[in-house]
Each structure stands twice: as C-alpha cells, then as structure tokens.
Structure prediction request, 177 residues.
Amino acid sequence: MFSREEKRKKREVMMKMMAAAAIPYSPLLLRSMASQKPISFAAKTVTSKKGTTGSKPKPKLLTRVEQLRLLSKAEKAGLLSAAEKSGLSLSAIERLGLLSKAEELGVLSAATNPGTATGLLNISLILLVLGPAFVFLVPEDYPWEIGLQVAVALLSIVGGSAAFAASNLVSTLQKSS
Prediction:
C-alpha cells in the first residue's frame, strides 16, 4: 500500500490545498474536484506593497481631456486647419506612421506618469538657460560663430518653450478633478 512517508506527503499536500482554499480541514469533508480551479501556490505568496500606500492612482487621461474640453478648444483655435496647411494631415500622420511611433515610445503612458511633468519642466529650464549661456560663452570673432549663436539660441528658446508648454499640459491633465 502506501508507506508512512508517502502518507505524510499526501497529508501535507492536502493541508496546503486546504490552507490555500481557506477551508478548514476536516477528514469528513468531500469536495468536488471537477468544479475547482487549479490552485497556484505561487499566487499565494506574500508580496510587498511598497509604493501603494500614499501613491496616487494614475490619472484617466481621456477623461481629463474631455473635462478640460481640449478638443473643442483646439477646434476653435484652428489648430487642425493650421496643421493641415503646414502639411500635417491625417493621411500624412498615417503615412509617416506617427501613431505607431508614439505607441512604441510610450507617449500615453508617459503622460500618466507623475514624473513626466517635472522632467519636462527640468528640460525646459535647462534649454532656456542654455541659449543665453551659449551666446555669452561663444566668442563673436567670425561670422559663423555668430550664426551658431543665433541657431543655438533659437533652438533652445523654441525647445525650452515647447517643453515648458508640454510640462504645463501634462501637469494639467494629471490633476484630479
């Protein structure tokens, strides 16, 4: 028949199954095995809840866009017609694969990440300081140096302003109503 060791192992397995199913052990208890889900002991392990206490739930991005009426504001401002005049139509977006690229880069998940607004703000400040610092540090001995100063200053101003606006937008979208 069964040795003592085999009986002990079976009893331990049965006790683990009962403990996992949160049913008190009873030698007279009959359970149907057909309707049970397989018990995963790995799913019953204790996990750390670090970061869950005190952390805010991720904002619902589309809900905030709707609450702030951003689509109607973009429509009233004429952003779509301006983008189309500059050559950025829906077919151009599709042809260039911008939506799949945004998906690959995780743009939407970055918009819900609490650290994104701060990171964009830091980038904008760095860029806005970089332009004047570059103009101050680079000498004006040759015309190409002046051209380089103008180019770097313009890029840093445009990039810093865009990063600042994006930081403000992401921060507004992440605020709870």
Observations:
- Residues 4-44 form one domain.
- The chain has nine helices and no strands.
- The longest helix spans residues 143-174.
